[in-house]
Structures are given as C-alpha cells and as structure tokens.
Design brief:
By secondary structure, the protein is an alpha+beta fold. About 20% of the residues lie in helices and about 30% in strands. The strands form 6 sheets. A 7-stranded mixed sheet has the order 9-20-16-10-13-12-11, covered by helices on one side. The protein is globular, with a radius of gyration of 26 Å. The N and C termini lie far apart (about 70 Å).
Length: about 350
C-alpha cells in the first residue's frame, strides 16, 4: 500500500546528501513537504576539530572591512598620571601616546573536482564527491593552522603570501635587533610595544628545558598585566613529553584540564600545555649576536590568548562554493567546488606574549 505521507527514508537520504536547503517529498495533492536543512555545516565542524590543533583555540571574530585597525597605548616612561597631591593643589594630565596598527585580511581557498565518470562508476560503494570535498576542507584548515604558526616562512610550514604567523610575530628588537615590519610598522628601538617578552633556556647557546623557564615565562606575562588572562603553553608533542617527565616529581604544581569530548591536557600552575605537530620547525636560537630561525624544535611559547584572535571578513569562513565544469568551461563533465576564508591573524598585545628560545631539541 502506498504511503499517504511519502517516503520518510527519502527525506533522510536527501538531508544527508544536500548542499542546499531542499523541499521534502509529499504525495498528497496540494501539500508541500517540510523543508530539509542541509547538514554540511555539522560535518564541517566535526571534521575540522579533528584535523588541527592550535587554530581551534583562537577566537574567531567578524569584521566588515578589509583590514582590522586598532591602537596600542605606549609606555608613558617616567611621567605618571596618578600622584599624591596637597590640599587644593591641581593635577597635571598626561595624555597617552597611541600607535595605530593595521592587519589586512588575506583570501585563502582550497579546491576540489571529480569527473562524472568517477562519480557514476563509484556511486554504489563510495561517494567520490563528498570525499574530495572533505579532503579539500581538511587541507584548507591544515594550511590555515600552518599559516597561524609559521606565516610566510616556507622553510618551515609557512605559505607564500600568507598573513604573519607566530614565527614572525614573536620577535624583539631590544634583544634580537629585529627590524621586520609588523602590521604596518617596523620594529625598532622606539617601538618596544612590538617586542614580546623573552626567556632564554641558555644565554647564548641551546640548553635543556627546565621548569624555571616555565616559571619565568609566567612571571614575564604577569609583570605585563596577564595574571588571570586565558593563557596557554604551546609546544610540540615531543616537548610536552619532556615536560611531563619534568612534572612527575612535582605533582602539586601540575594537573589536568578536561576538554569537550572527553579529552584531557596537562597543566602547569594552572596554565594548559597545548601541543601542535606543526611547531617542530619554529626554532629560534641566539648566540649573543645573531638570531637564527632554525627548522628544529628549539622554541616554545606562552601565549596570552585574550589578545590573539582571527578576524574574519563578513563571515566568509570555510564558505563552500559549488562549481559545475572547470574554471574555463561549464560544459566539462566534472563537478566540484572550493572552500574559502577571508581573514587575518591578529595579535593585539605583544608584551604579554612570551617566547622561550635557545631550547635543546627534545
């Protein structure tokens, strides 16, 4: 007997394969089926969280223009706004000096394509189009994660034409004499607001990681106002294993943090220790004269995540664009598309970020 309400399994099947909202089937005359919402967004979030490490911890915020613009207040030096005064005396205002910084968004995309023959020949056992789309999305998010870590440094995991990553942002003119341009301003002696805080494992040569390095990093962050902020130690999985061996005798200082999905991570003095497999080529060494970017595991970070964010242009974040045919002819027997993101990594404060450098490879 024919169902009066159509085939419910057909609606389920439609929901699983749709890339746009679809009207469900209903065999009754004059009655329209309920709208079936596309399910691709849930699949994307679930898949991305299993593909990358650091980038999932960075807050993503919207902006409605090509660049994110903000001001950094400079050190007032010996002049204080607050002072004791005698009865009836006057106060003297000392306006802050501010420098404006500009982070310009970059366009990034990942393409995929499948021929009609491949889709037809594998339809009974394999969804070739969905598999290629999934891989393209994964590659987009992995590339974005690499860009956040390594920026334009292609000798590590960086990508040409990328926005600046941690490898470029975690610099210092005061110690390393860095003179690179950051958000439109060159690092210089007068630009100490662009210098991150530093902890040297060895003064002029590499040395093994010690818990004192972690203590010093926390102190540097808190001296610059970071106490109570959302902070993480960021290192490689190999470095985390080294840290765990150091922490074993000191259980009162270490702990674990439970994450969504049943995962746990180690902590030191309440600061989570986060790993990323693409950090093993972000080494920074200093011999007292020359700074060297080495493609080794010779550095780690303490990051104040309250001041690290990813600015997205008008919500274009892993947005899917389907395509029929290739880029030169819509008559080609292929189907595909691409995922695109418009955005930029922003570090709004540098002094609270800490670079631990000159580390021996674990």
């Amino acid at each position: 007997m024919r169902s009066l309400f159509g085939d419910p399994m057909m609606e389920v099947r439609t929901a699983l394969t749709s890339t746009t909202n679809t009207t469900g089937s209903d065999s009754r005359t004059g009655i329209g089926g309920a709208e079936i919402l596309k399910q691709i967004d849930k699949v994307i979030v679930d898949y991305v969280n299993r593909s990358v490490d650091f980038s999932t911890l960075v807050d993503r915020k919207n902006m409605d223009q090509l660049a994110y613009i903000w001001n950094i207040r400079l050190d007032l030096g010996s002049t204080d706004k607050a002072a004791f005064y005698s009865d009836g005396a006057t106060g003297t205002p000392y306006p802050s000096t501010k420098i404006q910084y500009v982070a310009t968004a970059k366009a990034m995309r990942s393409d995929y394509e499948v021929t009609g023959l491949m889709m037809a020949a594998s339809a009974s056992y394999y969804d070739a189009l969905a598999d290629e789309a999934r891989d393209a999305l994964s590659q987009l998010k992995i590339a974005e994660n690499k860009a956040m870590l390594c920026g334009t440094d292609t000798a590590s995991y960086g990508l040409a034409n990328s926005y600046l990553g941690l490898l470029q942002l975690m610099g210092s003119n005061a110690t390393f004499t860095d003179t690179d341009t950051v958000y439109g301003t060159a690092r210089a002696a007068a630009r100490n607001e662009l210098d991150v805080s530093l902890v040297a494992a060895g003064a002029t040569s590499q040395d093994a990681l010690d818990l004192a390095d972690l203590d010093n990093a926390i102190i540097q962050n808190e001296r610059n106002g970071g106490k109570g902020d959302d902070r993480i130690f960021l290192c490689t999985p190999e470095r985390e294993a080294e840290l765990n061996r150091l922490l074993q005798p000191l259980q009162r200082f270490s702990g674990t943090l439970n994450l969504e999905g049943g995962f746990t991570i180690s902590t030191y003095k309440g600061v989570p220790i986060v790993t990323d497999r693409f950090l093993d080529k972000s080494g920074i060494t200093w011999n007292g004269t020359t700074k060297t970017l080495s493609a080794t595991d010779a550095a780690m970070y303490l990051l104040d995540m309250d001041f690290v964010e990813f600015r997205v242009v008008n919500g274009v974040d892993a947005t899917h664009v389907p395509i029929l045919g290739d880029d030169t002819s819509i008559r080609k027997d292929v189907k595909g598309g691409y995922f695109k993101t418009y955005g930029v990594l922003v570090m709004r404060n540098f002094n609270r970020q800490v670079l631990i450098y000159n580390l021996s490879v674990p």
